[in-house]
Amino acid sequence: MSGTKLLIVDDETDLASLLVKRLSRKGYEAHTVGTAEDALALLKQHFFDIAIYDIRLPKMDGISLLKETKIVAPETEIVMLTGHGTIETAIEAMKLGAFDYLTKPYNLSELELTIKKAEENKRLKIKNDNMKNIIKQQNQFMIIGKSPIFKEVIDLTRRIADSEVPVLIEGESGTGKELFAKALHYWSSRSEEPFVAVNSGALPEQLLESELFGHVRGAFTGANQDKKGLVEAADGGTLFLDELGEMPLALQVKLLRFLELGEFRRVGDVRERKVKVRVVAATNRNMEKEVEEGNFREDLFYRLNVVKLTIPPLRKRKEDIPSLIDYFIKQKKSPEKVLSEDALAALQHYDFPGNVRELNHLIERGMLLSSGGRIEAADLLLPRQKAMDGQMKEVELCTLEKLEKEHIARVLNRLSWNKTKTAEILGISVRNLYRKIEQYGLKES
Questions:
Q1: How far apart are CA 443 and CA 437, in angstroms?
Q2: Digits of tens for pLDDT over the chain (445 positions)?
Q3: Which is nearest to 337 in space by CA: 377, 372, 362?
Q4: In DSSP terms, which residues pair with 167 in a beta bridge?
Q5: How many CA atoms lie within 13 A of 147 on its CB side?
Q6: Which residues neighbour 130 within 8 Å (Cβ) at sequence distance 6 or greater?
Q7: Using CA atoms, how far apart are residues 78 and 68, in angstroms rounded to an integer?
Q8: What is the pTM of this model?
Q9: d(CA 14, CA 417)
Q10: Which contacts (CB < 8 Å, 24+ apart) does range 31-35 have?
Q11: d(Cα 118, Cα 222) in Å, to the nearest integer?
Q12: Count of Cβ atoms closer than 10 Å to residue 336 Cβ
């Protein structure tokens, strides 16, 4: 069955009804109206894949309807029917964006063939729209690690890659959750389809909904044209929801509906759209705790938590550090650089609160600061892991709130109030960091 939605606009009601019956038997969802005005009203309420317009209609003609359709439903492919106009009229329709035209009287088989071509053209357009994104996906990614605890996660990832069920990836900031999301995609049969990532903590709620589901022209100030959302861009492939715990509650409701039905609406639109994607979500939060505290919907959590991947922190797989170091050095295109034994020992004794991402930054820093071909321990500028005894005694008398406030202020000042880097070090989103700054009344000195 096709499932393609068709709109037939023709004031010859007997012919239109015949078309609807025949196309419905072929598996199409076909609808018909007799005027351009009724067609526009329907197009504003429902989404149609293909529209078939008679050029001669009462009041507004088919050419005017074509122009209006390109505004209210630009993704709809349009086939024009002409029995009265000249070839110049048909050419005008093609210039205005019609896919094709047929002259009356036409053969029904010919019309069906034209509809199939329009379906294929629509599919190709979607593919072309996603091509830039698909090309970006082809960049190779590497998952480095042979430690037993890490290999277990890799093996589980391979086993569930081809499934359609949602996957929840948990792990501390910097452990490589997006790499495993990509592995779930590229190790599956959908590897040639789009992999689309959405950062739930990077945008305000209003912009996040538009980014995720798209919007129609006029939905809000600045929405000058229709915009496809990332959900549509991921059709047939994988939608990766990063920083899931940062998603606002209001948007969680819409995400749950999408997961259950595969349907959604663009912001400002009343028409339902449908796509098929595999959803993978990632978080560095304890989601069970977030659910208990009312920050995350329980039904959405269980809908996403069908299969869970837990990525171990680097401190629990330190035997992988040498392999990771070799990979990062080669990535920096300076293979002549090597790590001294003292530097490697220092890294092996470090706990890596920022995990693999932090190791990458440390190696980058070491390569920058080292002279010659050896990276020494001093070149890494490893932060101290133990505070002075006097500082520890003072900390012991602090409330957790005060400790958090002082630590956030310390990191902000250390990084010259670079909020993006500060949020990365703290393992929270930039939006969450702004909330903390406001909560504690922190100010740049």
A1: 8
A2: 457 899 999 988 888 888 899 898 888 999 999 999 999 999 988 889 999 998 888 889 999 999 999 988 888 999 998 876 566 787 788 889 899 888 877 888 888 899 999 988 887 777 666 555 555 555 557 899 999 999 999 999 999 999 999 999 999 999 999 999 999 999 999 988 899 999 887 777 778 999 999 988 888 887 788 888 999 999 999 999 999 999 999 999 999 999 999 899 999 988 889 999 999 999 999 999 999 999 999 999 999 999 999 999 999 999 999 999 999 998 887 667 889 999 999 999 999 999 999 999 999 888 888 888 899 998 898 876 443 333 444 445 567 788 888 889 888 887 889 898 888 878 788 888 998 999 999 988 6
A3: 372
A4: 280, 307
A5: 18
A6: 194, 233
A7: 12
A8: 0.65
A9: 72
A10: 31/5, 31/6, 31/7, 32/7, 32/8, 33/7, 33/8, 33/9, 34/9, 34/10, 34/58, 35/9, 35/11, 35/59, 35/60
A11: 32
A12: 8
- For residue 424, the cross-strand partners are none
Q: Determine whether 349 is exposed, middle or buried from the number of CB atoms within 10 Å of its CB (0-12, 13-18, 19+).
A: exposed
Q: How far is CA 28 from CA 122, 167, 294, in A?
A: 15, 33, 44
Rounded to whole angstroms, how far apart are CA atoms 349 and 112?
Answer: 70
